[in-house]
Amino acid sequence: LLAPQPATKPLTARSVLASPVDAPWSPGSWRNYEAKQIPKYDEEKLRKAEEELAGSAPLVFAGEVRTLMSDLGRACKGDGFVIFGGDCAESFDEFSVDHVRDTFRVILQMALICTYGGGQPVIKIGRMAGQFAKPRSSSTETIDGVTLPSYQGDNINEDKFTAEAREPNPSRMVKAYHQCAQTLNILRAFSTGGYADLSRLHNWNLDFVEQTQQGSQYRRLATKVEESLRFMRAIGVDTTTPEFTQSNFYTAHECLLLPYEQAMTREDSTTGRWYDCSAHLLWVGERTRQPGLAHFEFVRGIQNPVGVKISDKASPDDVIEILDTFNPKNVPGKVTLITRMSADKLREHLPSVLNRVKAEGRAALWVCDPVHGNTYTSSNGFKTRDVAAIKAEIQAFFDVHEQCGTHAGGIHLEMTGKDVTECVGGDMNAVTVDGPRGLDTKYLTHCDPRLNSAQALEIAFMVAERLRGQAGLPAMLD
Ligand SMILES: O=C[C@H](O)[C@H](O)COP(=O)(O)O
Ligand SMILES: C=C(OP(=O)(O)O)C(=O)O
């Protein structure tokens, strides 16, 4: 149903133009605008990679994208909660079936905790099958007097510190595409092939999490859900239907590497509209979301639901301009605003933005990314985040939404199913700066620090209690 998009022209000189809502748009119109964070490629090699991608199968389909849009639309109106989770940056060397499965199952566990706790549908979205390209604060890195381009993700260059490795290579986009296809294949098999069946919910606990407080809390919760299922079966409910045995799972990534995104954009023959078939949802990052830039132009024309990262630098006017451009028809579910500020800045800044969006009657789903505003370098040189600061930002997010009468609609986490030691803190089995569970024990990330599975579950239990509180229910596990 989806016609391949023909190969694209090489990158051209950029001009800085505004992106009026009604100006003509095409998948390549971003090339007339200044593009930040996109590497300068060898043009002939880039053209070949784009052609190969444009002739490849879409990774997701327009119908799936529309289903996500309607799920997000319900959440936008207050009925639903979104969990986004996955690696900061997917990589070629960490890829394996187990790696995909372990992240998937922690997200399933988190969703079960929040569904049971909050009594709301939970929409599961993996930062998976496409989350490769990374925007960097500095375009270069200097070590011992040698300056090279910064590592920007495995679909752009390699993190090894040599001139050859850091050279942007367009064939890496094609390699990444093939890994995405495998990842999606695994995710589709796990979500619909029996693994996500609610009757297996005890098996989702990872071995190393079993030993933690979160693992035993999860076991108790799973037992309660099992009892509910037994009761339902006893009164004649059929628990072998897809509602019980399958799970909708969607993918998302930052819409950063526009040559890749354009090559994956296809016209839906049933509607004549353009869908970016690299993922169900694409978001624009804090560093590239400004009007008049190439990313803003590309995103305004695709029919996928889109996310926009919002730091404390975004004024209420900026947010209204984003909504005017990306969602001129004010469709609930079209735009998800992902705040990432740190707790203090969020308490100070978010109310004016929420009040303005609410006063103008704009449809926006609000999600909290509590990790990107809380990154710092530890005394022993690791880029890290503190679980306490992450939890504080989520609490602030719920508090501020309660004050403003708006819906706290989800969380967005850099996390993994592995027992990594990249973020400090945690209730049990805490990661510390040094020592037996010091940051250097299992620090594997290719860019930013991820929560490990016990830390992610701890956050899910906290969120579930907040959702319960909103619904006037007593604590879940007393
Ligand atoms: O994930 C977000 C960014 O890519 C990342 O935080 C940038 O890191 P840097 O400041 O080390 O470049
Ligand atoms: C780069 C990211 O976030 P931000 O744009 O908020 O910094 C990210 O989520 O990977």
TrEMBL record:
Cofactor requirements of the protein: Mn(2+); Co(2+); Cd(2+)
Family: Belongs to the class-II DAHP synthase family.
Recorded superkingdom: Eukaryota
Protein name: Phospho-2-dehydro-3-deoxyheptonate aldolase
Binding site for phosphoenolpyruvate: 127, 286-287, 309, 340
Keyword Transferase among UniProt keywords: yes
Keywords: Amino-acid biosynthesis, Aromatic amino acid biosynthesis, Cadmium, Cobalt, Manganese, Signal, Transferase
First-level EC class: transferase
Listed GO MF terms: 3-deoxy-7-phosphoheptulonate synthase activity
Cofactor, how bound (note): Binds 1 divalent cation per subunit. The enzyme is active with manganese, cobalt or cadmium ions.
Catalytic activity: D-erythrose 4-phosphate + phosphoenolpyruvate + H2O = 7-phospho-2-dehydro-3-deoxy-D-arabino-heptonate + phosphate
Residue sites binding Mn(2+) per the record: 88, 372, 414, 448
NCBIfam families (alphabetical): DAHP_synth_II
InterPro entries, alphabetized: Aldolase_TIM, DAHP_synth_2
Annotated EC: 2.5.1.54
Pathway(s) served: Metabolic intermediate biosynthesis; chorismate biosynthesis; chorismate from D-erythrose 4-phosphate and phosphoenolpyruvate: step 1/7
GO biological process: amino acid biosynthetic process; aromatic amino acid family biosynthetic process; chorismate biosynthetic process
